[in-house]
Design brief:
The complex is a heterodimer of chains A (132) and B (35). By secondary structure, chain A is mainly beta. Chain A is 14% helix and 44% strand. Chain A has helices at residues 2-6, 35-44, 84-87, and strands spanning 11-17, 22-27, 48-62, 68-73, 76-80, 98-107, 122-130. In chain B, 57% of the residues lie in helices and 29% in strands. The chains are: A mainly beta (132), B alpha+beta (35). At the A-B interface, strand 2, helix 2, strand 3, strand 4 and strand 6 of A face helix 1 and strand 1 of B.
Amino acid sequence: MKQHLGRQSGVQNVEVSLIDGKVEVTPKEDGQIDPVQLLKATYDSGVTAAEMNMTARGKIVKDSSGSLALQVEPHRSFVLTPNELSKGLEALVDTPTMVTVRGQLYKKPAGKKKADASVPLKLLIFEVHKNE
Amino acid sequence: MNTKKLALLALLVSIVSPVSQAQIKHIEMRVEGMT
């Protein structure tokens, strides 16, 4: 699996811990990493992703449907799952303020084995660090 | 002339840098079925 994930676009390094089933992925700075592709590559390598957490830095924007989103690249953003922390970020919409957040992008639905690639990943924020 | 070029460069850097600082820093997965 380490080799499989390491071949994905934008991946700098992959560390796998067999004991606790954790996989740590360090992205390259080219911004090409795609969490959806990582989930797919994980499944293709014969294991099931139970959970995916991400630390990312970006700007808070509103998407076309009016939902809050974290923009991490000019053409890539993740819609935020509403919670207390996301509500606190509403004031930053369309401001140049950059925030670093840690949150959950994916959790395997109970009873399902494979990630549904057709469902867009939503970011459930656990932590917010305002930087600028 | 040089001052104008420097001012333009500074303006470009200020526009581009906030976007370039935005990125995915780290991804962590918990997986099942790994042997």
